[in-house]
């Protein structure tokens, strides 16, 4: 066994103390922040990742990383933007290193089948076309559209989340909308040809 000096022990203690401080957050404040932001963040992750199960895992990891962050937050909006930036980066990392597929539970399949059966055929086709068009967008395009139109974020907030310049958001949103419209029109046209 190697000899350990007193200074190394002190350094290890200080590292452990810093880790404890990083996780220390008022529990009530965190619960309130989580309750306000979790549903919208999960919806964002679900759309961007394209998988509900991955969104569940990434939601937990996002909040864990937020708690570990040592960044001082200027306001509630700054903390929320930082949270979305973490989520966006986690989705990118997941795409680089995909997770193994998880087999859905039988109860989940039954509830989904019941929900699908209750929808009208026309509504189901419209949703499928939207999902297909969204699935063919690039991850950044999906993130742009979701943040702007589903979440209602400002251009500054979107720029902060995606790590791009605020001045380029308007053009990027325009291009993403145009591509989405073209993909949606292509999906509708393809469905009409099949009928």
Describe, in plain words, how this protein is organized in 3D.
By secondary structure, the protein is an all-alpha fold. The chain has 2 domains: 18-96, Orthogonal Bundle (Rna Polymerase Sigma Factor, Chain: A), CATH 1.10.1740; 120-194, Orthogonal Bundle (Arc Repressor Mutant, subunit A), CATH 1.10.10.10. 79% of the residues lie in helices and 0% in strands. Helix 3 packs across helix 4 (76-96) and helix 4 (76-96) crosses helix 8 (155-162). The longest helix is centred in the last third of the chain and has 26 residues, at 169-194. It is elongated and about 70 Å long. It starts with 5 loop residues before the first helix and ends with a helix.
- Give the end-to-end Cα distance, rounded to a whole number of Å: 75 Å
SSE string, helices as H and strands as E: HHHHHHHHH
> With helices defined by DSSP (H or I, 4 residues minimum), what is the helix count?
9
Estimated radius of gyration: 21 Å
**Main β-sheet description:** none
Q: Outline the low-pLDDT stretches.
A: 18-24, 102-106
From the spread of the alpha carbons, the general shape counts as elongated
